[in-house]
Design a protein that fits this description.
By secondary structure, this protein is mostly helical. It is built from nine helices and no strands. Belongs to the oxidase-dependent Fe transporter (OFeT) (TC 9.A.10.1) family.
Length: about 270
């Protein structure tokens, strides 16, 4: 639940941040009648995202056991790719996203009403579909409603934070927020990456399912709260296979280092001497 809550919080805050920027821009520029177009675009994007999430759950249930394992492996790798791209994109854009969105909205207003709704739709649909895939990948193996509760709480928290930011009741350093949550999501993505390789082993695409890298079950009984917390956050298992362990380390360590590595300052423009 913790990992899925984090996904909902992070993705939800990106969505609410985008929507609040668009709404604030229209309100401050005295274009309130256009707000209904923004909300229409948001509503359509949300409906498509929810429908896509339901389609994933219903469609996969119809597959055979082997095909389910293969699809879950592919879904895991796609989710990892989305997470990786998203955290690096947001780290780069956190300081400039407002200016970029306002520029897009100005261009859309000049085109017409459909373009205004389109800006909101495109801004939300990417995050919505991404959230659906991440939710599906992170919730694999769950047997109760805990994942749904986690994603719902995360999105609700994000909406509350977005509203408070909009009315300026609180001010948080978004760059710092996205850095910390991005680092945690790297660990979550490493766990999903590892789970993908486990599915490949389960479907017999890869061997080595009986070769464990280590076994610390005695120190981390699966029924304890701390073992469950680690499993939920980073897909920790007390007796992982060699392939799973290599996959987790091969993704987690280099990506975390690259993400936390200080960004290079923008190069100053060259000057010429006449």
């Amino acid at each position: 639940m913790t990992a899925i809550y984090l996904i909902g919080l992070r993705e939800g805050l990106e969505i609410t941040l985008v929507v609040s920027i668009l709404v604030a821009f229209l309100v401050k520029s005295d274009r309130r009648p256009l707000l209904r177009l923004v909300w229409a675009g948001v509503a359509v994007a949300a409906a498509i995202s929810i429908g896509f999430a339901v389609l994933l759950q219903v469609g996969i249930a119809r597959l055979s056991s082997t095909h389910q394992e293969l699809f879950e492996a592919v879904a895991s790798f796609v989710a990892v790719a989305f997470v990786t791209w998203m955290i690096f994109w947001m780290r780069r854009m956190a300081r400039h996203i407002g200016r970029e969105l306002r520029g897009r909205m100005e261009d859309a207003i000049a085109v017409g009403p459909v373009a205004v709704a389109g800006v909101a739709f495109l801004a939300v649909i990417r995050e919505g579909l991404e959230t659906s895939i991440l939710f599906y990948a992170a919730a694999q193996g769950a047997t109760d409603a805990t994942p749904l509760a986690g994603i719902s709480l995360g999105l609700l928290t994000a909406v509350m934070l977005g509203w408070l930011l909009y009315i300026s009741a609180v001010r948080i350093n978004l760059s710092t927020f996205f850095t910390w949550t991005g680092a945690l999501l790297v660990l979550v993505a490493a766990g999903i990456f590892k789970y993908g390789f486990h599915d490949l082993q389960e479907s017999n695409v890869l061997g080595g399912l009986d070769r464990t890298a280590f076994d610390v079950t005695a120190g981390f009984p699966p029924t304890t709260w701390y073992a469950e917390l680690l499993r939920g956050m980073v897909n920790f298992t007390p007796a992982p296979t060699v392939v799973e362990t290599i996959a987790w380390l091969a993704y987690g360590i280099p990506v975390l280092v690259l993400f936390l590595w200080p960004a290079r300052p923008a190069a100053a423009p060259a000057t010429t001497v006449s």
